[in-house]
Amino acid sequence: MGADNGVMPPRSSFSVRALLVCVIMVFPGVAHAAVGDFVYSNRDGHLIIFRNPEGCYDTSASGEMWNETDSSAEVYALPNCNGELLLVLGPGKRTEVPGFRSVRF
């Protein structure tokens, strides 16, 4: 009879590496907020400011926008960052886009 000494056999280093690869594939990176301000003019001509934006924002925009963040802003034709991607506005850039409805950072 073999004695059970409570010691488990060492795990294969291959299994550990395979698990690590799976975790990296499922969680490829941590999202972070853009640092700075994104400013646009709404349909009433008021300036709207998103400070340190992260994710998708719906807008009622028509006209100028300023991307004073450290990340690019993807500008969409429809709400919820759907529809046509109208443009990608790089950090520190300014432009005019009539009728965009959402922006993602």
Automatic annotation (TrEMBL):
<protein>
    <submittedName>
        <fullName>Uncharacterized protein</fullName>
    </submittedName>
</protein>
<keyword id="KW-0732">Signal</keyword>
<feature type="signal peptide">
    <location>
        <begin position="1"/>
        <end position="33"/>
    </location>
</feature>
